Amino acid sequence: YQRRVRGRHCDVMASAWSHVLAMGCILLAVYLSKTAIPPHRSSGGSYTISSSLVSRLPHHIQFVPLGPDRHTQAFLERSRKERCSGIVGCGVEKLKVGGYKVLYWVVGHYNAMYMLGLHSMHLVSHHQLSILLRKSGGPDRLPSVMDVGAANGVVAAAALEPLVLAGGRFAVTETSVWAAEALREKGWQCLQEDIAQPSSTLVGWNQFDLVAVLNVIDICESPVSLMKAAIERTKVGGWILMATPLPLRLGWAAPGGKREQKETFEGLDQAGADWEEQAFWLLGSWLPSVGLERCSFSRVPYYSADKMDSTPLVNDDILVLCRRSATGGMDLNLMAFS
Known about the structure:
Elements: H1 2-35, H2 51-56, E1 61-63, H3 70-82, H4 86-107, H5 109-116, E2 119-122, H6 126-135, E3 142-148, H7 154-160, E4 164-173, H8 177-185, E5 189-191, E6 208-214, H9 223-232, E7 234-245, E8 252-253, E9 259-260, H10 275-289, E10 295-297, E11 301-306, E12 313-324, E13 330-336
Parallel strand pairs: 1-10, 3-4, 3-6, 4-5, 6-7
Antiparallel strand pairs: 2-11, 7-12, 8-9, 11-12, 12-13
């Protein structure tokens, strides 16, 4: 009799635990379904600016409508697929996030992100840049390209490296030790220095046909010095790309990983609170102050995807294409990305 009672008790306990497990699986499935990345839906129209901004800009600045293309859609689809799924997959990503919280205090934000591979980004495709170069009187591809502050290299791989002619030179710069090592593993030449510093290496790291400074000026301590260094490393008649989100994010990654806030950047006393007002200030005041004057522009999204987030973060970016003149100033063609 006692054996039968104990047997029934075990059966009841097993049944209860199976119901608890089943309920847990159901709740997990509901959670994952609610946090899944939804399909990207385009607004259907081009990314435009107001007629009032157009009327205020100098006549040599023109707007080039250019929105998300098939490469943007492909990035969003990859982000959806790469997002953690299942108990094991999400468990691994949660362990990485936990590791990031520890590494943040040891090696800093960017080093921790690069070490763990938590982030992916998309700014613009090489197809869009080829169009911009052609509209600006340039070639589809170039003998040499350098990306300043290449981060984990995903933007450079998608947009810049394909612009280099066969047998040409592709190089990057990065201040992060871990990111620099990962970039070298891709087979790229990498200068692990802040080129805004006067002591930065110049010989062998200049005379590029195109130099890119993408989403760096708003998070560095010396944006004017950085842009002047980029100009210095571009050959006469070469091109410069500059991108930044608007409105500007006022802060940079200080030693120790914290994003420090600063009331006034070096030469970045921006005017206006919204995208168009800051675009007008950037085009009409700041860029000319560093020698960039002739412009054309447009808008497309700049995505930053985290495997643990439900949707990618979208920044409102402005991307500038500049041509260096013989006097050291720039003839500028500009494209902006929303």
